Amino acid sequence: MKKHLIAALLAMVMCLAALSGCTLVKGFEKDVQVVLNVNGEYQGCYTVNIFNNAIVPVPEAPKGLKFYGWTAEENWEEVGADNVPVTANKGLVRYDDVKDWVKGDELSVTLYPVFGEIIRHDIAIAWYDKDKTSGLNASVMSGFETKLNAFLKENGYNTEDMDIVIRAYAGNVGPTCDAIRSDGDIDIMVGWSDYANLSGTGGMMPDEVLENHGNILINPDFKARYAAKLYESETVNAVYGWILDTYAGEGGATLDYKYEGNDPEPEPEPEPEPDDQSGIKYTIGAEDVISLKIGCYGLFKTSGFSNEIKANFEEGLKAALKVCGASDEQLAGVEVKFYCLKETGDSDSETDVTALDKAIEADGGVNILLGGRALAKDKAPYLNPLIKESSGDMSIGTSNNRKVIRFTNDGLALAVYNWILSAEGQALLAAPATV
Description:
By secondary structure, this protein is α/β, with parallel strands linked by helices. The chain has helices spanning about 1-30, 75-80, 95-100, 130-135, 140-155, 175-185, 195-200, 235-245, 300-305, 305-325, 330, 355-360, 410-420, 425-430; strands at about 30-40, 40-50, 55, 65-70, 90-95, 110-115, 125-130, 165-170, 190, 210-215, 225-230, 255-260, 290-300, 335-340, 370, 390, 395, 400-405. It is built from 14 helices and 18 strands. The chain has a 6-stranded mixed beta sheet with strand order 8-7-9-11-10-12. Strands 13, 14, 15, 16, 17 and 18 form a 6-stranded mixed beta sheet that branches. β10 and β11 form a beta hairpin.
């Protein structure tokens, strides 16, 4: 009997441990909103936590540079690409990447792309690691590497001091070519197809492939493939010529493509047709929970506001958010409100910047403030440290030296901030025309 009782008690303890374990794990889960900013433009907002990563787009690097990853350092160029921490992956952001970049109690972080110089090698060769298509595998390429080293030594190169890279790229044509373009350091490609395939499916531009030759048999027991040259140097030219001479099938290597550098200027792209998308560049999903609070400085003589301007702005904002997909229920989470309301007269201790700061703090903060200007630390000890972005002077009603100030980095607040500064947003803050 005692044994059965002990077994029952152990089972209960294990069940309780399992349930509490789920609760503990849930307690550790912390959502962080990751906002991508590329060249000053909002590129999307993603949620990460200890259980969920975010797959993000990889920005195209300027010509001659390489994308190294994402960083929270907005001014990373001042210290150099080599001196800033970046995400471990280019197209994937993990909670572990950003957890130390989140400041204080904030639940969001803005990331910026880091572009740096391409580190070149003495020779870097990519091979198509898809043996059913290319005939290449690790064994074949090991033999290739042995022959390459022998060729280099015979021609006076000290291979022990050389930086020689032979790198596999697995997958279909599109992803492998994207990876090669992203790495930026490959000199020669072996095992792929003709230039029409490299450009059409692989997305490689005319000047990214200098030459492409067919009838190349790196694997003599497989069908002929192609060898492409992507970079020009004395060593690269020597190795590329050796590949064409050594591995060509009967009749020799056949030229498939050669970049002449004189492609005609592309036709200018037509102006895009205007669409119905609001100036708020944000998409609201049916399951999204909206929480957006916009404060308006209620001292009319200073801020330029009036009740009519506020009502006009709020109506226009909600209409624009509806175009972005917001339902009436979701719009209930959007609030535009006055702080320190005083329609006439100058500021006093109840309506000055210090009072504005205290009123907003007591209300739990705002995402964006309209109608303010200088929020110095001694006057606004709550708001000043929270400032993420402040606009140049703009007009609100009768005042032409007001600012739009953003305090949070979430994607919706950033998109609305940019929209307020657009012609569409500013028109809603103008003084109504009188008849």
